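FORM 7B: Structural annotation worksheet

SECTION A. Query
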Amino acid sequence: MATRALLLVRGARLVTAGGSFAADLAAHDGRFVHVGPVGSFDGVADATLDADGLTALPGLVDVHAHFREPGVHAHKGTYASESRAAAAGGVTCVLTMPNTNPFTNTVAQLEVVRECARRSVIDYGFHFMADGDNLAEMLAVRNVAAHKLYLNETTGITSPLADEARLRGLLATGLPFMAHAEGDTLNMLLAAHAQWGTGPLHIGHVALAREVEALRRARAAGQWVTAEASPHHLFLDETDAARLGPLGDMRPTLKTADDVTALWAGIADGTIDAVATDHAPHLLSDKQRVPAPPGVPGIQTMLPLLLDAAAAGRLSLADIARLTSRAPAAIFGLQGKGAVRVGQDADLVLVDPSAESTITNADQLTMPGWTPFDGRRVRGTVLRTLRRGEWIWADGAIQGEAGGVEVVVGR
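SECTION B. Predicted structure
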């Protein structure tokens, strides 16, 4: 019996973490039903896209983003607005942070967040706050990717949970944790995890050379720890911070050129597993305040920046697939995500890796409408984004409204 498909993408060069080939990619009812060499699909498709000359990557999985909703900061970015920017950047699934106002630290508050997320264009999941006093809520909550430890000050966090006694009890639960831990605080956390940790630990937005080295030692010692770097720490440094002023202020702050070099070395040797945006929208009016809140938008620009780095020989397209899709989905157990294969969610991004363009504020779909990369010339353009078999970005515009669903977490 011939395979039935709602959509056939024919002729794109499919890039996976293991290589690339010209492919036929067929999707039906939200999942891939055929992945094979070009010309291999002999079924029936309702619609066919000729993608000859284009490159296909797995839909990106951004495991670190702030969508500001619900609460008093929703005017800075909602699930509707920020997911549109994500779709334009090839991101098909996002995990959002719990330092909203109010915090997402109770089961009841997470249900409020879930209601907001139903307006998302892309699929979504959640991190849950570990505030040191809500262990009962942490044990009761369901289908969250990780519990977030804030061990240094950042947006909304003025009293970080950098307390070894509390950490001991939390780490011993075996729950999955994600941490904001900078410099010496990271050393303390890794030591605590080595002594008491019984579950996985993921480190967000690594920025310093000495943090890369600390992670390298921890992994060599067999610790269950993974890590990510953010695009702004990979493509900007302290000289850009001086040029950008408050538009270049985030946590962790931008570091030295040597620190940037160390991050790329950490990516090359596998110490850093993933790239995630730490997308943190603030309106320009917010950034003009004194003091300005830290954080920068980044969910729409991550893939163009990485494609440009690939064009410059800093990494391969296969590396991009690994860093932004396969590894993030695997670290957090996101079912159906991270790979292009039969049975997986039909998430895909079509790019032209040789097309040159300029990143501009005017093109940003995020609520604030600006980027620290304004005016940067890049080689590599996102043309189409497919979420579970439906085009959500094509011809320079969002296609349709909402439609995202909550991803299933299962380790």
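SECTION C. Observations
Residues 4-57+343-398 form a domain with the Urease, subunit C; domain 1 fold (CATH 2.30.40.10). The longest helix spans residues 317-332.

SECTION D. Sign-off
Analyst initials: ____
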